[in-house]
Write a structure and sequence with these properties.
The structure is a single chain. This protein is an alpha/beta fold. It has a single domain, classed as Rossmann fold. The chain has 7 helices and 11 strands. A 7-stranded mixed sheet has the order 5-2-1-6-7-11-10, with helices on both faces. It has a two-stranded antiparallel ribbon with strand order 3-4. Strands 8-9 form a two-stranded parallel ribbon.
Length: about 210
């Protein structure tokens, strides 16, 4: 099971690293970070870099593609090398997936037309602009397209994907291995539960 996670300047680290941790524990899985050229790619905080160990040319036909989101997503939508690779790789994937605003890159590649998809709550309604039907859910499956809501939802999506690609027992074992048993200290992780005014403050942290 060859899994490719494309990186671009300004990606959100957890969007990529959370699913990477989940999927890399699956028996028989090979997870590679890819970019136009091999080498370090800086995240959206400008302090953490992740090395792309393969180029797009090295991995033209992965079984799974997982696209992270991030502040750099909108600029990356005009990255023709990335968008073309996504479009061509999708023809051969078993699953094409995204986390957070990574769904916009799937949209830029023309992969979301007429499909249900999700993204970070702050940009959910705008997904229609790339042809998708926006859905306010943590993980959305439409055919072989699987999209996750914001950042931390990538872990949920990766476990869901793992159950689909292998079996539920494998996904459950990985969940236990990483001790993913979230009990957040505050009930403010979604717009439905956040108090009035908190959304504006939250947006100020990420824009």
């Amino acid at each position: 099971m060859r899994i490719a996670i494309p990186l671009y300047p300004g990606f959100t680290a957890l969007d990529a690293i959370g699913p990477y941790t989940v999927l890399s524990l699956a028996p028989g899985a090979s997870v590679r970070f890819v970019a136009a050229e091999r080498g370090p790619v800086l995240d959206d905080q400008g302090e953490l870099s992740v090395a792309a160990t393969a180029s797009y040319a090295d991995l033209p036909r992965p079984d799974i593609v997982l696209v992270p989101g991030g502040v750099g997503t909108m600029e990356a939508m005009s990255d023709e090398k990335l968008v073309t690779w996504l479009r061509e790789a999708h023809e051969h994937t078993r699953w094409t997936t995204s986390v957070c605003t990574g769904s916009y890159l799937l949209g830029a590649a023309g992969l979301l037309r007429g499909r249900k998809a999700t993204t970070h709550w702050s940009l959910l309604d705008h997904l229609a602009g790339v042809g998708a039907e926006p859905v306010s859910e943590r993980v959305v499956i439409d055919g072989k397209i699987v999209t996750a809501a914001g950042v931390s939802a990538g872990i949920d999506m990766a476990l869901t994907l793992l159950a689909l690609a292998t079996d539920e027992t494998t996904a459950q074992a990985v969940q236990l291995a990483i001790e993913y048993d979230p009990h957040p200290p505050f009930a403010t992780g979604s717009l439905a539960t956040a108090p009035a005014g908190l959304a504006e403050r939250a947006l100020g942290l990420i824009t």
